[in-house]
Amino acid sequence: QIRLRCQKGIPPSLRGRAWQYLSGSKVKLEQNIGKFDELDLLPGDPKWLDVIERDLHRQFPFHEMFVSRGGHGQQDLFRVLKAYTLYRPEEGYCQAQAPIAAVLLMHMPAEQAFWCLVQICEKYLPGYYSEKLEAIQLDGQILFSLLHKVSPVAYKHLSKQKIDPILYMTEWFMCAFSRTLPWSSVLRVWDMFFCEGVKIIFRVGLVLLKHTLGSSDKLKSCQGQYETMERLRALSPKIMQETFLVQEV
Question: What SMART domains does this protein's entry cite (predicted)?
Fold first, then answer.
């Protein structure tokens, strides 16, 4: 029942709370009362602080929460990302964490968003944000072999053009599509992602590849590597539309 409810879309008024329960971050917070405040008070490593500072204004710049420099949204985003670098110093900060944290902050206060981010980095997408990006490379290969089953035409085309999955799927997967899809689709994908895990991210990737490169008709305008990459960067709005995409997933 919960899975079906998440597939239909969680009501906006409940979404923030539902994400915390589904991800297990609610329990994590209860097990670590005061931990976020403790991290929040620490100065943090200057090498990360500079990079985080530079990234703040790039996240959803037109959203009322993040529109003003030094506004409460950007301040909270800084606090959450800084706290994560102190919580996992061996991992530090990765740029793709900023849009993830920003989406969370639109739905919940900073402390809850922090523990939700911890769950995404550790439970849902482990290894994605570590320095060598090994997990993302491995998942790129898995996506590619799944594409062979789902859309042999797209698979063959990408193989022929020698386009490595890491070239088109890195931002998709690491940002959980928050920088790729229209906002209404992002929320629906995240509802399912929190309920069912990373397989949802794979499915969305497969749907996009199949409907962008999956027929000889579509490949007419993608003769070379450059044209194919451009097509994957500028996906058709129709396939990213909430109703179409969710049904295909």
Answer: TBC
